[in-house]
Amino acid sequence: MEEKMEYDRQLDIQRQEERELQRRQHRRAQKEVLQQQMLARKEENEKEKEEALKDKRMIDDIIAKINKEDELELEAKQRKVEETRSLVSQFQNERKQQKEALENEQRQQDAEILAYNQMMEQRKKEEDAEKKRIEEEKKRNYIKVVEETQAQTESKEEYDTLRNMLWEEELEAKQKKAEVSYHSLLFVYIHNALPLS
């Protein structure tokens, strides 16, 4: 009985040792599995970190590219704004110059029109003065002609009167001379008794 009890005790101890050994082996196996899992997790974590770093680098590159594109787009937009502002300013300057040129041209035209009107007014005054002078000259000439005509008429009348008087005197003298000649011829004829032929 004691032997059996001892045997059972020894068997029990052996079984406990085997269980303990199995537990240890099981723990060791679990530990190895855990270590492998931890190692795998670590490797996975490393890979994930690398992937994360790769993703981060890719995201940083994409962000940098987007930022660069945004900067380029902003610069292009600012250039367009500046170009537009410059074109607007140039257009405004050209418009201002055109307006000033038109105003200057209008002022010049107004000045030319004013000068032309003044010239025409001066010419009209001169023409009116010339017409008045001509009218006065005509009037003076008319008066002069009338006076000269009157003088000539009076002079002609005096001349005609004198001429008529001279003509009458000459006629009388010729008649007297003819009468004298006739009487002389008649006297000669009578005295010479010449036939009349």
Enumerate how many helices there are, as a single number. Answer: 1
The biggest beta sheet reads: none
Low-pLDDT sequence parts: none
Question: What percent of the residues sit in helical stretches (DSSP H or I)?
Answer: over 70%
CA-based shape: rod-shaped
Order of helices and strands: H
How many beta-strand elements?
0
Mean pLDDT: 80
Instruction: Tell me the distance between the termini.
Output: 251 Å
Task: Classify the beta-strand content into a percent band.
Answer: under 5%
Class derived from helix and strand content: mainly alpha
Rg over CA atoms, rounded to whole Å, is 79 Å
Set down the secondary structure blueprint.
Layout: H1 2-192
Description:
By secondary structure, the chain is mainly alpha-helical. It has one helix at 2-192. The longest helix has 191 residues, at 2-192.
Give the structure's gist in a few sentences.
By secondary structure, the chain is an all-alpha fold. It is 97% helix and 0% strand.
Keywords:
197 residues; mainly alpha; 1 helix; 97% helix; rod-shaped
